[in-house]
Amino acid sequence: MLSDMNASTRKLQAEIARTQREIAALGPLRPGNLYSRLNVCGKPGCRCCRPKNPVKHGPYHYLSYTFKGKSHTEFVSKRDLPKVAEQVRTYNKFRRLVERLVECNIELARLRKEEK
Ligand SMILES: [Zn+2]
């Protein structure tokens, strides 16, 4: 029984070490959700607001996120879109890794309590 627990402890420690290495290896990241939308400029006679077959401008891309309790929406140029999308994917991966790290540490603390 005790050796079972030691095996579990070692497995968790290995998982923690692996997760920490994965976190350390992450590239640039930023939180948020990307979305795109078509806009109407409001200039009289513009194709976007003509009564017949209006053609709106865009799509324009935005990143919205909440950080330290404050929400932000930021314009993202078409050129920057792939880069920002990658940063958002990295952030989501970071969150999953942190969650796994915390989960493993909670489990490890629980096992060590039982070992006493
Ligand atoms: Zn317009």
Task: Write a concise synopsis of the structure shown.
With 116 residues, the chain is α+β, with helices and mostly antiparallel strands.
Question: Would you write up a description of this structure?
Answer:
The chain has 116 residues and is an alpha+beta fold. The chain has one domain. Helices cover 50% and strands 22% of the residues. It has helices at 2-24, 81-115; strands at 33-39, 57-67, 70-76. The longest helix has 35 residues, at 81-115. The protein is rod-shaped, with a radius of gyration of 24 Å. Zinc ion binds next to loops.
* Distinct compounds present: zinc ion
SSE sequence, one letter per element: HEEEH
How many strands, what sense, and barrel or not for the largest sheet? Answer: 3 strands, antiparallel
Number of helices: 2
Name the poorly predicted regions.
none
Mean pLDDT: 94
When the domains are counted, the total is: 1
Secondary structure: number of strands: 3
Distance from first to last alpha carbon: 13 Å
User: What does the radius of gyration come to?
Assistant: 24 Å
- Secondary-structure-derived class: alpha+beta
Helix % is 40-55%
What is the approximate shape? rod-shaped
Percent of residues in β-strands = 15-25%
Spatial arrangement of strands, main beta sheet: 1-2-3
